[in-house]
Amino acid sequence: MTSKNPNSEARSSFFQRANVSVEKIPIGSGIQIGIERVSNPILGIGGAYGAWGDSYDNSHLTAFIESRLGETLSETEKMNLADLGFTSRHHVPTVSDEENLEIEIEVGARMLREAARANSWQPQEVEAVLIGSSGPVSDDYTEQIAHAAGIPDSALKVSVHKACDSSMGALQLALNPNLGERGGKNLARELFGRKILVGGIEGLSRFVQQSRDKNALQLFGNGAGIIGVIPGKTMKFLVGKDRELFDEQGVLEVRMFYPHSRQKFEGKSMIEVSQPRENYIRFAGLMHEPDDESPVVMAGPMGMVKLFVRTGVEVVQEAYQAYKDLMDELGTPDKSIAVAIVHHANYKINQLKAKHLKRIGIQLPMPWLVSEFGNVSAASNMIAFLRKLSDLKPGDHVLFDGFGAGTYYDALAVELGGEVG
Fold first, then answer.
1. Strand 20-25 versus strand 271-277 pairing type
2. CA distance 142 to 159
């Protein structure tokens, strides 16, 4: 079950956490960036997560948004963000497109280097980088940050654009051989036994900057989380399910700031796979886009609940049943999921999801872990996992649950620290 909402009382900024290294990116008056590195040597898994920009707690966020909108939010337009599980957000000031690109390449490169360091790897040892992102700052963002981090040009680079599900889509691609060939490659088979970095990097402050959607401006902020794993050794795939179900009604409309034909074909995946260069693959998901040029338009928190909970419960139920069947087959029917790492869209969505799962006999520990970031889309699962990493032991089973606009779902169970013979 989801833990009690931890945000009923004010908390300090993420930048003030004891283990967060805070520096400034020398652009404009300086862009603050905080990164926390996490390692579990017994599991052989580590990573890094963080945020950049100025930190706005709930009490100061309204003034910031009003300054961007150039108008006052009415009392009915102000969201009860604490009840939704969030205490603060990170935003960059208005800068040029060139400066945004420079900032986010520097952020991505630092995140990759710190994630490699958390695994005691040198950047040149990394053999693949898989990054999920809702609205990348450039079409070749994953390539640019890998190069800037000192990762070899020969390493495979994969970009996944499935909104908030992007990092879980990337993790499933890296671990699940049953997905078959996508883009002419079975990535899980190709990456088995290799040192890879996988995660989500979301410059959502830039993404929603031009939005007039008052809910989106209050909910979303910058965040990133990257983990280092060796598929089949430090993280072993058990079962996985994915699903696409197009958001015909446009409950959560998102502009596609990445190459996609914008066509939908009956009976075919909405994800277009392209390979711009030999070592670079892009998985781009179709979105229901706003009619105007807005980056995002939301029907409101209740709309998101209706969009994600029903199908999301079905996908988790399928993955959980496949997991139980596998445990029975292996002769370990009493084995259970140590923790479920669920996308933090908002606390009420996760709470309702847990309630619906309980009704059908599935009780999973689903802690709420990403308070100081807001909804950071594809970064949230990775941040949540890193915040639980020190509590996990070899042989523990973890269920990852991702979902995002479009609409896309990825649920997979893995075993940690179990080497495959």
1. unpaired
2. 6
Distance CA 197, CA 179 (A): 20
Question: What pLDDT, in 10s, does the model give residues 218-273?
Answer: 999 999 999 999 999 999 999 999 999 999 999 999 999 999 999 999 999 999 99
In eight-state DSSP terms, residue 351 is: H
pTM assigned to the model: 0.96
Number of H helices, E strands in the chain: 10, 17
Question: Which amino acid, one-letter code, is at 347?
Answer: Y
Q: Three-state SS for 2?
A: strand
CB-count exposure of residue 315 (10 Å: 0-12, 13-18, 19+): buried
Contact 165, 410 (CB under 8 A): yes
CA-to-CA distance for 193 and 174, rounded, in angstroms?
11
Task: State how far the Cα of 215 lies from the Cα of 208, in Å rounded to an integer.
Answer: 10
**CATH code assigned to 14-416:** 3.40.47.10
Collapsing DSSP states into helix, strand and coil, what is residue 116?
A: helix
| H helical segments located in 92-157 | 97-118, 141-148
Q: Name the helix (H) or strand (E) containing 226.
A: strand 223-229
Domain ranges of the chain: 14-416
Segment 266-310, tens digit of pLDDT: 999 999 999 999 999 999 999 999 999 899 999 866 777 878 999
Q: ω into residue 407 within 30 of 0, thus cis?
A: yes
Can you tell me which residue has the tokens 């102000």? Answer: 78
Do 8 and 84 form a contact (C-beta atoms < 8 A)?
no
